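Render this sequence as a predicted structure.
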Amino acid sequence: MSYTKSVLIAEDSSVIQNLARKILEFQHYEITAVKNGEQVLHLLEKENFDIILLDINMPVLDGMETARRIRGLADEAKSKTPIVAITGNAKNYTDEDFREAGFDDALMKPLNFDRLVEVVAQLTQ
């Protein structure tokens, strides 16, 4: 029985969001995309995802705070969903900052799409 893994992408850049969507859809992932962290939290109230890709700099609710809130969810399965940071401001954060916020991994912009596919595959197996 084949099961399609679901990926939630939170990215305010339409270009990056669309490129990531196309690449992951080509790898047979089911993609849901939103523009900010508040939308992520609303979706998590009613849906489950196998992995969440979070841009760090988003309007309304940024990726760091969104990750902290996901890790604090009462639903244990949802609070343990793998989360990957996507950032163009790697110099502003250390690996420790990402770990403390609850991220499982971090990808730097410009995105290396081979690495994106690799990380998503590793964290959703």
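Summary. The helical segments are 14-26, 37-46, 63-71, 76-79, 95-101, 113-124. The chain has six helices and five strands.
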